[in-house]
Design brief:
Blueprint: H1 6-19, E1 25-28, E2 31-34, H2 35-50, H3 56-64, H4 81-105, H5 110-120, H6 129-153, H7 156-169, H8 172-178, H9 185-194
Antiparallel strand pairs: 1-2
Helix pairs in contact: 1-2, 1-3, 2-3, 2-6, 3-5, 4-5, 6-7, 6-8, 7-9
Length: about 200
């Protein structure tokens, strides 16, 4: 059961206020939203399916996962695999530190802040069930909300590599939920090819 303690509500409100500063927008059911606010809401919604009994720390980490990500552009790093990995690592550290600071400001103890930060940094992936749940959630949000448009902009070989890497990071529960996503026909065909089903 989700703790409805005021500090949780205040933490979500502060995180969402920062997400709402994203200058990029997306249209959702006729409404224009800041992109990262929409992303954070999608993360929370998918976590409810991945792990309905998720701890408060995991719910906070999921909501904070992309905290002000747009402020550290991918183009600030070399356009190669090491550059990408460095960008992702730096983002994780920055977002973890920011989230821990927000939690401290609304009354969480240092241990909770560090747990949330650890989850955002994806420490213990494969070994920590909550870190794995966060990873599954992020992969599902990508497949559900971003994959079809992403696939349309890139060649099939690149998409197949990304799909295989995404699938490898997910748990059996994540795989099960991924197969429920209603993808456009072309995107679904790519998924089937990536998984060796076609």
């Amino acid at each position: 059961m989700l703790d409805t303690d005021t500090r949780f509500t205040r933490a979500i409100a502060r995180l969402d206020a920062l997400h709402a500063e994203d200058p990029r927008t997306v249209r959702v059911e006729g409404e224009t939203l800041p992109y990262e606010l929409h992303y954070a809401r999608c993360m929370s919604a998918w976590l409810d399916r991945v792990l309905p009994e998720a701890s408060e720390a995991l719910r906070l980490a999921v909501r904070a996962q992309h905290l002000q990500r747009w402020q550290v552009p991918r183009d600030d790093y070399p356009r190669d695999r090491p550059g990408y990995l460095t960008w992702r690592r730096d983002l994780g550290r920055r977002q973890a530190e920011m989230a821990a600071g927000i939690l401290k400001a609304v009354g969480y103890d240092a241990a909770t802040g560090e747990r949330v930060a650890s989850l955002i940094r994806k420490e213990g992936l494969r070994r920590d069930p909550e870190t794995q749940a966060l990873e599954d959630t992020a992969c599902l949000v990508f497949l559900d909300n971003e994959f079809a448009a992403f696939a349309a902009r890139h060649d099939d070989d690149k998409i197949l590599r990304i799909l295989r890497k995404t699938w490898a990071k997910m748990s059996p529960r994540g795989h099960e939920l991924a197969m429920t996503i209603d993808l456009p026909e072309a995107a679904r065909a790519l998924v089937q090819r990536a998984l060796g089903a076609a």
